[in-house]
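Journal club side-thread
Mid-discussion, someone asked how the predicted structure for our own chain would compare to the paper's figures. Pasting it here so we can look after the session.
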Amino acid sequence: MQRKFVSSIFVAVIVVAVARMVQAQDAKTRYPAMAPVNEYLIADRNAEIALARSAAPKSISDQAEILVLTEHGYETAVKGTNGFVCMVERGWTAGANDRDFWNPKARSPFCLNAPAVETYLPLTIMKTNLALAGKSKPDIVAAIPAALDGKKLAPIARGAMCYMMSKQGYLNNADGPWHPHLMFFAPLTKPAAWGANLDDSPIVAVEDTEDRITIFMVPVPRWSDGTPDSNTQ
């Protein structure tokens, strides 16, 4: 049963990856530029706090720091005590070829552990501040390697990871909430070094050369509220 579950996840991810490649080649992208800022904001602050918390089980998110997006950038809405930070990313944290880069509907709740707060969160903050300042997609994408080269951003820390287990998230128009999963961040690493993207492996990996990290994703069978992911049954 486990083998069947892993195989189905891997096939689904390959299908999504191919679909994204086709979309990236489509010159008539649906979101060619940034929408008005207010379209990316969540008017109800408490709703955004709840959405951010839904990224991880309550045992983690209830004690985490919560960030919410304003027209001036992310700000702390709730102070935490366990070293985790939960927030909702927008589409502009995606890669340059992602069709949903400027999609105002994109909502990606995650909860970062302390090493990720130290070294991955600054990537999100920088991209967000650049987007809100009106910078273009090429400018945002180019700013990250420049900041890494200039030591304004630190390389990703060992042990950096996050929870993405919210059934309320909306990653993009292709995936919606996708599957509940954990993400592990590493310096650029070949997926095979972790056994990722191999037949029957539970680990899926994406090499993000723009941010100089490899993201390893491990699907889990339940959402943060404990309900099963029906797509993997």
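Post-session note: The chain has six helices and eight strands.
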